[in-house]
Fold this sequence. Notes:
Bound molecules: zinc ion
Oligomer: single chain
Strand order of the largest sheet: 1-2-3
Number of strands: 3
Strand content: 25-35%
Helix content: 10-25%
Number of helices: 2
Shape: extended
Largest sheet: 3 strands, antiparallel
Structural class: alpha+beta
Amino acid sequence: MIGSQPAGHQEPAPEQRSGRLSVAALRSAIPGRMWGGKGCGAPCDYCRVLVSPDEIEYEVEARLEAETLMLHFHPRCYDAWRTSRDPPPGEEPAPGK
Ligand SMILES: [Zn+2]
């Protein structure tokens, strides 16, 4: 039964990710360029709350394995993300000696 059916199979838009990134994936993502702007209606990748259009949103280009992703964060979530993946000097736990 081979027929060319134009409908019935819809491809997701490339921007859409069906699942949110896991915390582990977020931690291993390598931040690249970033932009600040108004919320564009995308949920924050850190707290998963929608960034409303009257809030500032940070868009961060991040590399995860071989992929480049665009992540969206609230400013404070961006800070928390950076802190969680990259402890600031002086605050890292003392290495067990
Ligand atoms: Zn957030």
